[in-house]
Write a structure and sequence with these properties.
The chain has about 290 residues and is mostly helical. It contains 14 helices and seven strands. It has a single domain, classed as Hypothetical protein af1432 (Orthogonal Bundle). The protein has a three-stranded antiparallel sheet with strand order 5-6-7, with no helix packed on it. A two-stranded antiparallel sheet has the order 1-2. A two-stranded antiparallel ribbon has the order 3-4. A hairpin with a 2-residue loop joins β1 and β2. It comes from Shewanella atlantica.
Length: about 290
């Protein structure tokens, strides 16, 4: 398989898993973008930034093994259901072990719910045992969860979420990562919060509340739908501002299927490819081929 296809397959797997939950649209992209901003703020090298961004996009891949009834539950989880949710980092690691590029993301995916105080999961690691990628994703994942809308609450403001990160620094979150996260230019953070792509704010279903999938490349009049209530919408763009207009129709079975934003995935993969290929010997060892073509 060509190198570009390998990258696309990783991004696609994560995007389709995310699409199963109508309330978390764009979460993978936001965590990846925020994680790369932290890596830049920490002055990490280019390849490390790429790796952390890729791991951020893939961190919830293991939710493929969580039943829809639990993943999409709007009420409080039972103890038994929470134990099921807690399996997703280990499932992600199992999936990534069998992908030629899986080693790039496995550390971040497996340990992003570990905590410096040892009270995290799945392995109860202490701060010294938690990989840097996971420490960064832990912070950005929590931040995005706090600032995103859910069926039972609206997302909180950026300032409040930053305060909570600082209050839980050293216990739930790595203090060095929190410090650098809070140092990121606020405009850069605001450009990511409640977006699913660059310059693409999330759209909310006016009927029932979940996120409606709108891709950056969509144009005036293009159709989309809410995968929760099945309502169909057309996209309106007025003076650069996007909104949804109900068509009065019902989504087709094809529209309701979880799908990936292939244009976004293609952009992310092309962006990552030159960084992976900087060291050809490393690349050949990683994918097990002498083919350096994309």
């Amino acid at each position: 398989m060509k190198s570009l296809d390998l990258l696309r397959s990783l991004y696609s797997m994560a995007a389709v898993v995310e699409a199963r939950d109508p309330y978390t649209g764009g979460h993978c992209w936001r965590v990846a973008q925020l994680s790369e901003l932290v890596a830049i703020e920490m002055n990490l090298d280019e390849r490390t930034r790429l790796r952390i961004g890729l791991a951020g996009f893939l961190h919830d891949l293991g939710k493929v093994g969580v039943p829809d009834a639990i993943l999409n539950k709007t009420g409080k989880l039972t103890d038994e259901e929470y134990e099921v949710i807690k399996t997703h980092p280990s499932i992600a690691a199992q999936v990534l072990k069998h992908h030629p590029l899986g080693d790039l993301a496995i550390n971040g995916a497996l340990a992003h719910h570990e905590r410096p105080d040892g009270k995290g999961y799945p392995n109860g690691l202490n701060e010294a045992q938690i990989h840097l990628d996971a420490s960064i994703i832990s912070v950005t994942d929590a931040f995005d969860a706090m600032t995103s809308h859910r069926p039972y609450r609206n997302g909180m403001g950026v300032d409040k979420a930053l305060d909570i990160l600082q209050e839980n620094s050293s216990s739930q979150f790595n203090s060095n990562v929190v410090e650098h996260f809070c140092s990121i230019d606020r405009h850069d953070i605001d450009a990511i919060v409640l977006h699913s792509d660059h310059h693409t704010p999330l759209q909310i279903c006016p009927n029932c509340g979940p996120v409606v999938v709108v891709y950056k490349e969509m144009e005036q009049g293009d159709k989309t739908c809410c995968r929760n209530c099945g309502g169909e919408f057309s996209l309106l763009i007025e003076e650069g501002v996007r909104s949804l207009k109900p068509t009065g129709g019902v989504a087709t079975p094809e529209q309701l299927q979880p799908s990936a934003d292939h244009e976004l995935i293609n952009r992310l993969s092309h962006r990552a490819l030159p960084l992976l290929k900087k060291d050809l010997t490393w690349w050949q060892k990683l994918v097990g081929t002498a083919d350096s073509s994309s």
